[in-house]
Amino acid sequence: MHIPVIDISPLYNETNDTNKYTVAQAIDTACQNSGFFYVTGHPITAERMLTIRKLSEQFFALPAAEKQRISIKLSNNHRGYGETAAEQLDPSKPGDWKESFDMGLNLPAGHELIGPKRPLYGPNQYPESIEGFQQILEQHYWDMLALGKKILSALAIALNINEDFFDSKFTHPLSVLRFLHYPPRTAHKDETGAEVQPVAAGAHTDYGCITILWQDDLGGLQVQDVNGNWVDAPPITDSFVINIGNMMARWSNDRYKSTPHRVYSPSSEERYSIPFFVEPDFDTDVSCLPNCCKEGEAPKYEPISAGDWMIYCFNSTYAYRTEASTAET
Length: 329
Ligand SMILES: O=C(O)CCC(=O)C(=O)O
Ligand SMILES: [Fe+2]
Prior knowledge:
The protein is α+β, with helices and mostly antiparallel strands. It is about 25% helix and about 20% strand. Strand 1, helix 1 and strand 2 (about 35-40) form a beta-alpha-beta unit.
């Protein structure tokens, strides 16, 4: 499997359409083949990522009680701290050996979009004791969203639809910025006595539109090829790894591939990564994109709203969400 490295700087050069088109073609091809690619030439600076990584380290170093005060279990809209093993990406394996912090669009309580019809909207939960945390993260959130929209504009160009087709679908995005911390893992023996390396994050596909991943220098991200083999997606300086999620696969009538991946790290060192999940507004109509269905054929999937799709996906991964909903009924 080939995971291409694509320099997207031409997408920011408004005057040269030929170069833009070449980049759009390269992205479109990668999304049809592996569903994974790297981007370089983006506007998020190394200095910014260092600042964000430091905030992540500071956050996970807080006392457990302080992190639990903003537990995701206390949030109606899936924001805050998730302890190790809270998320089980591969249902056949134990919970993932990672802790997480999720933030998104910070809507104040009482905002008109918040309500039982749209359960993913609402306020964030922030730690109190880290200076600048909220302000820096919220700035970073919008900068990452702008990058996501730029990548989507390339898909629009490749699909021969209006370049800003996706733009209007991100006024109140469900996008999420996530800190992940994988504490040291040690190898253990299975029942036959064979040494087993722990899987840090189980095999899964992402739920949403596209994911933009920053990973530290440790490595461990692996992508599954069509034969079921795991291929390393090692860190590349100043790049992000981009992958297609299930919503975009559905939206594009399976033109684009949502490919299984995992974090498999034999290391006893700790690992940090920072995914940004690019998801549109809750009410976005996810029905077959223009030019993604052959003439005379019906699209493969029924229309669904982006929000309903995300809720359906979350409920199958987080035990606490289904426990809570069972308790309510
Ligand atoms: O930590 C990583 O490198 C990947 C995380 C991931 O795949 C996810 O959160 O969906
Ligand atoms: Fe993922």
